[in-house]
Amino acid sequence: MKYYIIAGEASGDLHGSNLMKALLKQDEQADIRFWGGDLMQAVGGELVMHYKERQFMGFAEVIFNLRKITKHIKFCKTDIESFQPDVIIFIDNSGFNLRIAKWAKAKDFETHYYISPQVWASRAGRVEKIKRDIDAMYVILPFEKEFYKTYNYDVHFVGHPLIDAIANRPQIEVEMFRKEHNLSNKPIIALLPGSRKQEITKMLGVMLSLVNDFKDYQFVIAGAPSQDFSFYQSFIKQDNVNFISNKTYDLLSISTAALVTSGTATLETALFKVPQVVCYKANAISYQIAKRIITLKYISLVNLIMDREVVTELIQGDLNKKRLKKELAAILKSDKREQLFLDYYELEKKLGGRGASDKAAELIYNALN
Asked: For helices 334-350 and 321-331, what crossing angle results, to 10°?
């Protein structure tokens, strides 16, 4: 059968690639056309547009790029009509995907959604549009099934695909990895400043301001595949800083602590059992808008899933050198670390075990037969 998959950023590319592998187990002759990235492209099929070409963070950035976004939506619709898929599979990326879904449903295409938009965080009214436009929804967070149930929408909880992605990754030889990337034997504090330029610009300078206060540790920036080293280089003013591109999982596997920009990376860091401080700072306009429409107690997935504060969140004005230094020092102490490890194990249990991609692929394939 013919599958059209739309993913919009690095995490969507990761989960999309694993879903594609699982679909090919179900349907060896699957013809897959997709919007995604390098990982999806490595599986096979045909890449329509790379996510790097359409990355916009925050309300203000979206408004400034509306013409480009509108052009992409129009092109996507034309491309779908030309391909005539048996099913369109949307992965997260709600701003773009829900617009395509409305059009696709009106054209009688089969529509499935893997990894729900975060309607539980803001604008819950979108659930009615999802019920209207999406034939099947596969959710990855345990509280999402109950959330949708309150709207009389039955969805499938398949577990979180990060558990598989982390469990299946190739293991590294630690000493060889350190040597290859010019790392010393000092314990590592990983810096995960996000994947978009706007995020990195807001976060990385504050993170790096701590380098001279923790000289017994080495700081290592986890470079995003979507950004070149030259962009990061302008932020690095100290000697005790290293940079490793596109190997975040390998880096986390040997890290002692991490400073992490809010997003999927907070959950990845927790699943690697690395104590972390969650950081978030946005464009001032975007932040003021978000504050008025987001209804959550927490911004990190770790705290949202656990429904309590497990990791410290430093948001907007609270993300400053003084607070960040204090919180980093706290997670380097044994009592705080031990509690975090216990909480992280409980978190993993709540996420439902392995096999998310396989479960989703099987449900999609069976729905079409």
From this structure: 80
